[in-house]
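TASK: fixed-backbone design
INPUT:
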């Protein structure tokens, strides 16, 4: 018996580190998973991995840019049409650009807000009435950048977007309660993924990235995904409108 048996989950960014792990884990817990990524080839690889493991995953073919509202709408509608209902929207996809506030270009600012925040509004807006049919949950991936600045990278745009993810989620919880829709954000600390392992190979960069992390190690994708799985499941039936930090103790100091 899976913890998500009978549920349909839309997961964004399934070509990436955490999104791939999430697709595999949610499917292995009984969910029918519909994914997408702007990197269509990576998303299709994930679909194959999930199917090879004997589970259900779809998401169409090719690249989906969720920063384009029309593509976000079409992806949500196609997912609901394929599986006939929607229970879980897992907004995981994001892309950002860094730079000191004086140097960060206007274009980089807009790129970050578009690909970390706008896309989450678009998928949620178009998923909302489908979730409201029987109730469900929206899981939005934020970051510890929502809660504290960085001494090693210029994260003003990223921090603004991820902070907005937390407050956006809180409002979803307020609006969602009458539809039995819960909304929860998750704020990971530094997580080792295929995209970040290169940085971790350099001892100086590793030390700087892990500065202040009580557990003195990066998190693993499955540690964020396990939290999302709990939030998505009926075990979290009294949890809404909050943010869960998964950071090895970084924010404790
Ligand atoms: N890795 C970390 O250290 C870390 C820390 C805190 C928060 N997070 C958050 O966790 C989530 C997952 O990140 P990850 O570590 O797996 O990174 P990742 O880059 O491996 O995955 C993100 C995926 O989102 C996709 N994507 C980006 N823009 C998109 C768009 N417009 N439309 C569709 N897909 C798009 C990317 O192609 C990528 O596959 C993100 O929201 C990220 O901000 C990551």
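OUTPUT:
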């Amino acid at each position: 018996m899976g913890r998500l048996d009978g549920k349909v989950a839309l997961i964004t960014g399934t070509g990436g580190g955490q999104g791939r792990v999430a697709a595999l884990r949610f499917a292995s817990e009984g969910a029918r998973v519909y994914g997408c990524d702007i990197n269509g080839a990576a998303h299709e690889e994930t679909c194959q991995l999930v199917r090879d493991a004997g589970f259900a995953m779809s998401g169409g073919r090719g690249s989906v840019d969720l920063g384009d509202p029309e593509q976000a709408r079409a992806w949500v509608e196609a997912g609901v049409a394929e599986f006939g209902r929607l229970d879980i929207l897992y907004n995981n996809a994001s892309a950002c650009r860094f730079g000191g506030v004086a140097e960060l270009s206007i274009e980089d600012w807009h790129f970050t807000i578009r690909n970390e925040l706008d896309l989450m509004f678009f998928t949620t807006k178009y998923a909302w009435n489908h979730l409201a049919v029987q109730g469900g949950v929206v899981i939005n991936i934020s970051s510890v950048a929502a809660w504290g600045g960085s001494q090693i990278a210029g994260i003003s745009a990223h921090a603004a977007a991820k902070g907005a993810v937390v407050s956006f989620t809180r409002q979803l919880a307020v609006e969602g309660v009458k539809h039995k829709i819960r909304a929860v954000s998750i704020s990971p600390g530094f997580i080792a993924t295929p995209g970040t392992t290169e940085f971790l190979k350099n001892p100086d960069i590793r030390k700087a990235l892990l500065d202040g992390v009580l557990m003195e190690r990066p998190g693993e994708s499955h540690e964020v995904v396990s939290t999302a799985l709990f939030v998505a499941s009926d075990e979290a039936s009294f949890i809404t409108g909050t943010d869960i930090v998964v950071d090895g103790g970084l924010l404790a100091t």
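COMMENT: The longest helix spans residues 106-131.
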